[in-house]
Specification:
209 residues; mainly beta; Immunoglobulin-like; 4-stranded mixed β-sheet; 17 strands; disordered N terminus
């Protein structure tokens, strides 16, 4: 009877990096990646090849911690990973360092998010469109150390904004909620302003509406 150690037969960990800011998700070459296998008390440092791929030949565990310093060019990563198998490469998304702003636009009366709002900044940088939940994300390297106004515009609503927002440059920012008020529809009478007008019936009686 022959006993086979499954850990010996299993493939090693392969990490495949992709630059999420590139047009075709290219790999990130010459990037230092650290993998820690906590249950073994081991740590391995490797650098990606020209295609952005690393093979950790000594790691055959599906649970590990992965760290990327970023070198001042990419956002740092410090994540715990648990895979079902090592048969396929583990994809590691790398994001270039930039200022990221996330926010939400909602209707004042319902507090529901507003879809398809145009979001822009003053001073002007980049624009974004809100999703169905009223959420938006702005990403750019154009932001500077100056207060910004964030404007939300929609054809069915009065414009709204938040002013004097200072940002954490080359970091992730959450800005305050932007509240919009729906425009009054032309020709539609506000029920609170309706008046009773006398109407004479055919039999001569008067009805008020």
């Amino acid at each position: 009877m022959i006993l086979i150690n499954c850990s010996i037969m299993s493939p090693p960990l392969t990490v495949e990096t992709i630059n999420v800011d590139s047009k075709d998700n290219q790999g990130v070459p010459s990037l230092k990646v650290t993998v820690q296998v906590e249950d073994q008390g081991t740590q391995y440092d490797e650098v990606t090849d020209e295609n952005g791929v690393i093979k950790f030949s000594k790691i055959k565990s599906t649970q590990f911690k992965i760290l990327v310093d970023g070198g001042g060019k990419y956002f740092p990563i410090d994540s715990t990973v648990e895979l079902s198998t090592l048969k396929s490469p583990f994809t590691l998304e790398i994001e270039e360092l930039k200022t990221i702003i996330r926010g939400r636009v909602f209707e004042d009366s319902t507090h529901k998010g507003i879809d398809s709002c145009v979001i822009e900044t003053e001073p002007l940088t980049v624009q974004a469109i809100t999703n169905s939940a009223g959420e938006f994300t702005l990403k750019s390297k154009l932001f500077t150390n100056t207060p910004y106004t964030f404007k939300a515009m929609h054809n069915d609503y009065l414009h709204g904004d938040i002013k004097s927002v200072r940002l954490n440059l080359n970091g992730r920012n959450n800005v305050p909620l932007i509240e919009l008020k729906r425009k009054k529809q032309k020709g539609k009478i506000d029920p609170s302003q309706e008046k009773d007008y006398p109407v004479t019936r055919g039999d001569g009686t008067v009805e008020r509406k």
